[in-house]
Amino acid sequence: xxxxxxxxxxxxxxxxxxxxxxxxxxxxxxxxxxxxxxxxxxxxxxxxxxxxxxxxxxxxxxxxxxxxxxxxxxxxxxxxxxxxxxxxxxxxxxxxxxxxxxxxxxxxxxxxxxxxxxxxxxxxxxxxxxxxxxxxxxxxxxxxxxxxxxxxxxxx
Length: 156
What we know:
Structural class: alpha+beta
Number of domains: 2
Number of helices: 1
Largest sheet: 6 strands, antiparallel
Order of helices and strands: HEEEEEEEEEE
Strand content: 25-35%
Strand order of the largest sheet: 1-10-9-4-3-2
């Protein structure tokens, strides 16, 4: 075997080994959500479904941590569309996370920071936000409305 052939094979082999080693994290990262999806959910109660009148949007607080303090709870808006159909919106604007205010007269949400406006369905109607309002995954268990607090981005 010539020296040139040996070096060529060595370089190609080394490149293949490096590529294989570098691809391992990518493969693991792409497979991990399939194995840990349920473990990442963090369901928190919002209270009995009777607290939320049908057809109305009601503000609510969810305890994020068991500690006391300003960061221990999170504000949300609950819209009970029908008997068992709930939509739970994050109170944070999708632009910079400013707290949204709900106007029951117009049934729209307003962002005081940049003038963002969202309709009752959570769709953007005006202002700089380019995404609809964030919605929490929710479920009803034994008459208690629960939300998965990890189902929206962490900044909210």
